[in-house]
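Re: weekly structure request thread

Next one in the queue (370 aa):
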Amino acid sequence: MPTKSIFMVLAVVSTALSGCALPRGAALQSEIVKEANSETPDIAVYPVTKNLLPRFAKWPHTGGVAQYSWLGRKAAPIGRVLLAGDTINLSVWDSDENSLLTSREQKVAQLQVMRVSTNGSVFVPYVGSIQVGGMTDAAAREKIQSALEVISPSAQIQLSSEAGTRHSVFVVSGVNNPGPVPLEERDMTVLSALAIGGGAKEGFENPQIRLLRGKSTYAIGLDRLLKSPSLDTTLRSGDKILVAEDESYFLALGASGREELITFPKSHLTALDAVTIMGGVDDARANPEGVLVLREYSSRAVRADGVAGPANRRVVFTMDLTTADGLFSAGNFHINPKDVVYATESPVNNARTIFSIIGSAFGVSNQLSN
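Done, posted below.
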């Protein structure tokens, strides 16, 4: 009777195991990548290794600020030049008793504020229009004084100027004090303009800089800009600057500590960073040899040889975190916005579950025999 009971219990267990799949929290790696071996594969699969990292780095980005370029800093002369819309203040000192500009009691004449016209000229009494556009304050003063010497040889000119709105950049949003910033210096940079605007608003996670210049848009993470002074771009008149919170994210799924949408805490995120942020791989469930990154490229990026671009729009990158090359390569493989980082289930878990059920069955049968 006890032997019969054992066989009956094992038969029931065997029937149960063959009739239904064991419950799991994630798929196996083989299940996800099996389509790559079909006659018309719908995905391309690439291992993340030291040898393939340079190839992946040349493939197009799939979103976030990485899809925008950025401008390096270009050296500009110290000071600035006069442009249309700037205003000029002229003070004329003249000791000549017969001066046309000053009276006997008055040794200095404060001329009316002059605005540089669209063609770059200003009108000076008794002289006429003088071209000053593109000149520094010092050069403009010398030119006006030379013109006045014809009517008043003893005249001395003092000149000061103020930048007009046409000679400004605009900090539009994302700072504490948005508004126009006059380009008092020709070498003003993005960080200088942000400082004048009161800096980025508090509470932004991984703030991003957008620079609008004409019809072009450039973007960079603020953290990267602060770390690389050579990227602190020199501004031009009419530039617009926006600061926005980074909305880039990746999806953490599978046998990991977290299964959720996770925003980027910094501009550049590696696969190893992502695995750490998502709580690592579950020691009891996950397969450390099968951490996957699922990514979708545009059809224009696809290349038949899989060298200049992926061989398919849908790509699965596989990582083995049990080897030194796998760990180092994961630390140098960049995650793109909207990537899916998937920790696959370990096939050992199924065997453990089966043994656990069989072990329970033997326990039941032992109880029956007793």
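The chain is about 25% helix and 25% strand. The longest strand covers residues 286-296.
Next request, please.
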